[in-house]
Structure prediction request, 313 residues.
Amino acid sequence: MKIVIAGAGAMGSRFGVMLHQAGNEVLFVDGWESHVQAVNEQGLHVNDNGEEKIFHIPAVLQSKVKEDTQADLIILFTKAMQLDQMLQDIQSLIHSDTKILCLLNGIGHEEIIEKYVAPTHILLGNTMWTAGMNGPGKVTLFGNGTVALKNLAPEGVEDAKEVVDVLNSSGLNATYSENILFAIYKKACVNGTMNGLCTILDSNMADFGETTTAHEIVEAIVTEFSLVAKNENVELNVKEIVDYIEMNCYNRDTIGLHHPSMHQDLILNNRLTEIDYINGAVVRKGKKYGVPTPYCAFLTSLIHCKEQILKAH
Ligand code: NAD
Prediction:
């Protein structure tokens, strides 16, 4: 299958490498010039669970995508704020049978994708795989993961199942999920609490979780997500999700000592965050549905203040 990875950062590289190893024809499309150059000139240097490997997979700058390239499947893996520009730049790759799979964190990306692609070709998903970037042309892959996905429009069911098979043939552990919006919202609750809070507080998840006010704040934020989700026919049980966060994220023996990715992006690397597509999306949807979202609004504003103080870009 001809597969374009649109956004070949940490996660795009991880998926691209695994799909390439399974024999698919993979092309990386990316907006970071020095990364594209490094991948083309020195290969993609991958630390795969401690083992150093180099992969030669072609990469092209998104502003220079050629008219004559077409894709069977495009996997979107930009950061959320880069998605619109990426879709504008890859228009020529999308033909009448191209399937578009969005695996970004956050909620509401379909509203952007639908500006460029018919809903029948859009697949939404989320993933528990992880990866990190160490600089241009260098990524680290750790652990195992899963992917869940579903077609946005009912007509897309066959496409979705075909993509599940392609991902599974590459070891990406994919499933067709009837309840993908629930999975997307549940993950957004984890990101909507841990990412913003640990970034503003400059804390790992376990240290935050042990504060006397953590429970109250997390519960308030998850409640806002659940009230908004209810208006989209997604039932989130607040107690279950808060329990899930507290059991998983604060565990010092597993991931509790980690700083969430937003902390790494903003505090360590001075990069802009995806807050507008996580808590900020809840604020926008809350306004639309008449649901008050004061905690999400405050956290979104604080993160924007921090971005400006640190002159993130
Ligand atoms: P990433 O930051 O590694 O890459 C996203 C884009 O930013 C790529 O185009 C990349 O080339 C570019 N980029 C990265 N570092 C840059 C730098 N220093 N300067 C300029 N450009 C740079 O993002 P990611 O971690 O691959 O995440 C993609 C999406 O997947 C996001 O929505 C994220 O929330 C989600 N996600 C990430 C993980 C993870 O473990 N990293 C897990 C699940 C979901």
